[in-house]
Specification:
Protein name: NOGG protein
InterPro entries: Cystine-knot_cytokine, Noggin
Subcellular location: Secreted
Strand content: 25-35%
Number of strands: 8
Helix content: 10-25%
Radius of gyration: 23 Å
Order of helices and strands: HHEHHEEHEEEEE
Low-confidence stretches: 1-18
CATH topology of one domain: Cystine Knot Cytokines, subunit B
Keywords: Chondrogenesis, Developmental protein, Differentiation, Disulfide bond, Glycoprotein, Secreted, Signal
Shape: elongated
Mean pLDDT: 76
Family: Belongs to the noggin family.
Structural class: alpha+beta
């Protein structure tokens, strides 16, 4: 599987799976002769080719109505106001927050106030993955894939200066319509690994 993924770049099918982020989109040949015909888009046959790789949470045959666009400011604001989930980062959990009321002496804050400051700092540095449906075009099946991005319009550090950037990616298995011209044009659906961002981190 690793060898198959590594050679995809040379076949001009899809960027090879790697830890190099951000992800780069493939430039498609504009000639419609390389598009699948209606007879090639039989959903039953394509689902059989996909096998157990079809994930309805990240794939769709038609554009979902409840899609979340990055430009939807109301939805985005709501998402960014949500409390971070999972375990608090150890570098924030370990902060003591001493006050400096008297020079030369350290006054430990109350446990409750310390927790509030930790939660505030965590919310300021939180980097959620924002998902939106992406139309890959007729040469991919399923045509619509939910891809991740990092919100970078505000700083995620205190003091400011750092922004949210892609940190990890995962790969979905989808079908790619591939045409070869050697010995006459022959086209077929082949499985490929499609990378999507799965984690964002606050970084320089």
């Amino acid at each position: 599987r690793l060898e198959q993924g590594a050679c995809q770049h040379y076949l001009h099918i899809r960027p090879a799976p790697s830890d190099n982020l951000p992800l780069v989109d493939l430039i498609e040949h504009p000639d419609p002769i390389f598009d699948p015909k209606e007879k090639d888009l039989n959903e039953t046959l394509l689902r059989n080719l996909m096998g157990g790789h079809f994930d309805p949470n990240f794939m769709a045959i038609s554009l979902p109505e409840d899609r979340l666009g990055v430009d939807d400011l109301a939805e985005l604001d709501l998402l960014l106001r949500q409390r971070p989930s999972g375990a608090m980062p150890s570098e924030i959990k370990g902060l003591e927050f001493y006050d400096g009321l008297q020079p030369g002496k350290k006054h430990r804050l109350s446990k409750k106030l310390r927790r509030k400051l930790q939660m505030w700092l965590w919310s300021q540095t939180f980097c959620p993955v924002l998902y939106t449906w992406n139309d890959l075009g007729s040469r991919f099946w399923p045509r619509y894939v939910k891809v991740g991005s990092c919100y970078s319009k505000r700083s995620c550090s205190v003091p400011e200066g750092m922004v949210c950037k892609p940190a990890k990616s995962v790969h979905l298995t989808i079908l790619r319509w591939r045409c070869q011209r050697r010995g006459g044009q022959r086209c077929t659906w082949i499985p490929i690994q499609y990378p999507i961002i799965s984690e964002c981190k606050c970084s320089c």
